[in-house]
Amino acid sequence: MFFNPTSALALLLASVLSYNVVRVIYNIVLHPLAKYDGPLSWRALRFPFVKTMVSGDLPHRIKRLHEQYGPIVRVAPDELSFTDPAAWRDIYPQNFQRPREYKDKPPRKSCRKSDICQRARSWPIPQDTRTSFFSEKSVYEQEAMIKGHVDLLIRKLHQTIDTDPSKSAAVVDALQWCNYATFDVIGDFIWGSSFKCLDQVQSHPWIQVIAQFKVALIVGAFKFYPPLDAILTFITPKSAMADLWMIWKTTENKISERLTRSKGRKDVMSYMIAANKASSEYYMSRDEMEINAMLLVIAGSESVTTALLGATHYLLREPAKLQILVREIRSTYPEEDDITGISLNSLPYLNAVLQEALRLCPTIPDGMRREIPKGGAAVAGHFLPEGTVVSIPQWATYQSPRNYYKPAFFYP
């Protein structure tokens, strides 16, 4: 029998089309999540979600969808978004796992455990197994180091202003200087040595690389389509990976340097090393140390920068509230050296400003997505089938009039 390739191709295309039509009808009408409202195209296919994610507009778009459809929105065939505060305790304390599309393993790195935040709460400090580096006590042990970097930041800012021709109206880039300071602090905190951004008054290449969120979003989008994801790995030129390899090389060098030092101020690596000696349960391989250290550097620097810039932005927009904060600080501390981490907890307006800045400028405006485990689970009073992806989009939740009075305003 004669084989007709044209007919075979037409049959294949017809089959693919039929399959997708059936899948769309199922997603809209018969899917277990069909009763939840959302845009028709988003309920039918994952593509509108992915397209909006790559555009960078996903947090804002989801906010608008919640304004239109309410506290629960179906943003993809298998995904629900919640702005109901009750969903928080149902999703995140339950240790639901991240969906496959949101997991990543660095190239040429072997990582069995990347849930550092969950396990680190139990990492022992030498001679004290009751605390971890996430404890208040451990953070206060870093105060002298942090103060040193803050003092250097202030000196460098003064020098920059003093050398500006228009001293009375000198302009500095707040984002740039916050990045310098936070990267130096987090580097010192993780592996006991800073990136020297403040000393050299220039960005470390790390900052430019992790600022390339667009590339990360595009790579993440391909994960929703496994065949394309596999192809991407093969067609990506080595030159495009050069910056990423630079990050890993820096991390490897920092970890190697830190492991050769046995004495000095405690840092996060101190706890990793102590945990490896104390218990096989919390043992980390070299690759796992590098992966988790890199994650902490990125998360720690960007989150603090966002909070600082958010507070600065809104205080400068509202001088009356800035003056309230200035009076509170200066009436509490006659001298700069009187300021301590513990005593700052007693300043109600300062802490209110920081909380409000985090609400208006959340460090993660989108949601941290989790997957309903086997057997299903209840979220905000709704029982959901296993495999459902759920999240709380922080920007939409904190901007919801259901949760806050005049949510767009800065009200410390």
From TrEMBL:
Cofactor list: heme
Keyword Oxidoreductase: yes
PANTHER family according to UniProt: CYTOCHROME P450, P450, PUTATIVE (EUROFUNG)-RELATED
Stretches assigned to coiled coil: none
Family note: Belongs to the cytochrome P450 family.
Keyword annotations from UniProtKB, A to Z: Heme, Iron, Metal-binding, Monooxygenase, Oxidoreductase
Name of the protein in question: Cytochrome P450
Gene3D superfamilies attached to this UniProt entry: Cytochrome P450
Highest taxon, organism lineage: Eukaryota
